[in-house]
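Moderator note: this is an archived Q&A kept for reference. The question asked for a predicted structure of one protein chain; the sequence and the answer are reproduced below.
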Amino acid sequence: MTALANVLPEIKVDFPEEFDVWQTYFDSVRFDRPVPPLPEAGNQKTKLYLSRFNVYKLYFAVKDLEILLEKYEVRAPFDGNIVSAALRVGSSARNGSQLGTIINLEDLEVKMPMPAADIPWIDYDRPVLFTSADSDGQWQGRVHRVAGSIDERTQTVPVFVGLESMGEGTLFEGAFLEAAVPGRVIDSALEIPRRAIYSDRYVYVVTDGKLEFREVTVARALNSSVIVTGGLHNGDTLVVEPLQGVTPGMLATPRIISTSERSF
């Protein structure tokens, strides 16, 4: 088109009888359609003008590309959506050119940041449930992989969950979701207030009216409580309020609190 636009003024001056033919051809070219055949030059001088401005050379180069384009079709190996297009319609795609970005709707993945301390407690056999504040749907998936390094910016470990059920709501690429990650079940465990723990592994219990300083096994520490898997038994009277200035063996009278009074 550029070459033809450059030669049109020359044709109008030197060959005015042919100007309308070439102007009409110029106006008929559309980027979304194949290039139409060139008009016949009225004389040899017109051909020389067109050749000097590379009109014939560029025309046949475009026709070769059109033939090549008909032989190829780019298809994604999955059902998806086009997120971005790097080239416009009619642009030339060279070797190594990025055409755009397509997301795979058949294999969506959610990246979740999780504290490193929570990673060993993930139950990989149960599904992760997702909800969104922007949609009424619910989705579920399973943990595919865990990154091998900590994100320096957030100090969390990226966990990647593949969605298995798309639910009823519409899920958009880039949406923020809330996840409920199933944790491993700890058998024969007790959850006690964190304030009842001393030196990270001891508790006070009341045995036969006296204080006993007992070592326990802490499986996991939460924000306001701890999970104990050893050292406490059903029927033990645990002291849940902090004690100061006491020693094992001192007399103690327990006050049993109701369920409604308990708080961690």
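Archived answer notes: The radius of gyration is 38 Å.
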